[in-house]
Amino acid sequence: MKIQKVMVIGAGQMGGGIAQICAQAGYDVLLNDLQEDSLDRGLTVMEKNLSRQVGKGKLTTEEKEAALNRIIRSTNLDDASGADIVIEAAVENMTVKTEIFKKLDKFAPAHAILATNTSSLPITEIAAATKRPEKVIGMHFMNPVPVMKLVEIIRGLATTNEVYTRVEEMTKSLNKTPVEVNDFPGFVSNRVLMPMINEAIYTLFEGVASKEAIDDVMKLGMNHPLGPLELADFIGLDTCLSIMEILHEGFGDSKYRPCPLLRKYVKAGWLGKKTGRGFYIYE
Ligand code: NAD
């Protein structure tokens, strides 16, 4: 069956971006979050992103309006009854995700694929919360979604080839490049990236250099477009901490222990760009 209706769970940084590119690619989108004000925030960001594209001449005003008109707001998971695929992008927490998947399994039609944008949690465990593990898959978009080309696609133990192929095709229809990886904590992207960010936080914590110096070393010396601390602020320090905890627990190896300074910032509510303060201050 052709995928036409996409439900996105979570209207934050990632869910908003996923909803936007799906709408731009012509899919009908249901954007779900817990509260109306979260939907308002997500849609405002999307409106700004699309207007910027219009300003740059990459999009016409009509295309922008058409994309926005393809998005329907939802605060109720039973709206999944109208979806061919659900892409979950709520917070990085196994309890939250399994609760959502149990409900989606109940409400989504039997043919619907249930995908998660988790950065690091086991797909097989999320799938086990449903009675359709063969239709559960990881679809890991990168941030910012409208810009980054990669989508890591992760099969759970029971995911069928047919489901994999349909998700791969949908990814290409969004003008993204799918890369298949196996179901291990952090997959490839965060297994490699997050320990580097955590190590950068340790170098700050131990007084090896200032935050600006650490970021300069990695930008000027390694040709990274963003320094690791700027990148951590951009990703969200809560998300960084969750991923490090998942790597630490998943591999049982002390090399993945989260830096105490990262924990402290998260406890303080300094979550990075999204809260106005992380390692840097954002006006
Ligand atoms: P975010 O904090 O910006 O947004 C999360 C949204 O989910 C919020 O709007 C919140 O209200 C909503 N939410 C929470 N519980 C919900 C529920 N039960 N039902 C519906 N909505 C709910 O977080 P984010 O950065 O967009 O991350 C979302 C997911 O994407 C996480 O799993 C994260 O690991 C993953 N991810 C993040 C990045 C990144 O760079 N931030 C990159 C790739 C993947």
Automatic annotation (TrEMBL):
<dbReference type="InterPro" id="IPR008927">
    <property type="entry name" value="6-PGluconate_DH-like_C_sf"/>
</dbReference>
<feature type="binding site">
    <location>
        <position position="33"/>
    </location>
    <ligand>
        <name>NAD(+)</name>
    </ligand>
</feature>
<comment type="pathway">
    <text>Lipid metabolism; butanoate metabolism.</text>
</comment>
<dbReference type="InterPro" id="IPR013328">
    <property type="entry name" value="6PGD_dom2"/>
</dbReference>
<dbReference type="Pfam" id="PF02737">
    <property type="entry name" value="3HCDH_N"/>
</dbReference>
<dbReference type="GO" id="GO:0070403">
    <property type="term" value="F:NAD+ binding"/>
</dbReference>
<dbReference type="InterPro" id="IPR022694">
    <property type="entry name" value="3-OHacyl-CoA_DH"/>
</dbReference>
<dbReference type="InterPro" id="IPR006176">
    <property type="entry name" value="3-OHacyl-CoA_DH_NAD-bd"/>
</dbReference>
<feature type="binding site">
    <location>
        <begin position="10"/>
        <end position="15"/>
    </location>
    <ligand>
        <name>NAD(+)</name>
    </ligand>
</feature>
<keyword id="KW-0520">NAD</keyword>
<feature type="binding site">
    <location>
        <position position="119"/>
    </location>
    <ligand>
        <name>NAD(+)</name>
    </ligand>
</feature>
<feature type="domain" description="3-hydroxyacyl-CoA dehydrogenase NAD binding">
    <location>
        <begin position="5"/>
        <end position="183"/>
    </location>
</feature>
<feature type="binding site">
    <location>
        <position position="97"/>
    </location>
    <ligand>
        <name>NAD(+)</name>
    </ligand>
</feature>
<feature type="site" description="Important for catalytic activity">
    <location>
        <position position="140"/>
    </location>
</feature>
<dbReference type="InterPro" id="IPR006108">
    <property type="entry name" value="3HC_DH_C"/>
</dbReference>
<dbReference type="Pfam" id="PF00725">
    <property type="entry name" value="3HCDH"/>
</dbReference>
<dbReference type="GO" id="GO:0008691">
    <property type="term" value="F:3-hydroxybutyryl-CoA dehydrogenase activity"/>
</dbReference>
<keyword id="KW-0560">Oxidoreductase</keyword>
<feature type="binding site">
    <location>
        <position position="143"/>
    </location>
    <ligand>
        <name>NAD(+)</name>
    </ligand>
</feature>
<protein>
    <submittedName>
        <fullName>3-hydroxybutyryl-CoA dehydrogenase</fullName>
        <ecNumber>1.1.1.157</ecNumber>
    </submittedName>
</protein>
<dbReference type="GO" id="GO:0019605">
    <property type="term" value="P:butyrate metabolic process"/>
</dbReference>
<dbReference type="InterPro" id="IPR036291">
    <property type="entry name" value="NAD(P)-bd_dom_sf"/>
</dbReference>
<feature type="binding site">
    <location>
        <position position="274"/>
    </location>
    <ligand>
        <name>NAD(+)</name>
    </ligand>
</feature>
<feature type="domain" description="3-hydroxyacyl-CoA dehydrogenase C-terminal">
    <location>
        <begin position="186"/>
        <end position="282"/>
    </location>
</feature>
<dbReference type="InterPro" id="IPR006180">
    <property type="entry name" value="3-OHacyl-CoA_DH_CS"/>
</dbReference>
<feature type="binding site">
    <location>
        <position position="92"/>
    </location>
    <ligand>
        <name>NAD(+)</name>
    </ligand>
</feature>
<comment type="similarity">
    <text>Belongs to the 3-hydroxyacyl-CoA dehydrogenase family.</text>
</comment>
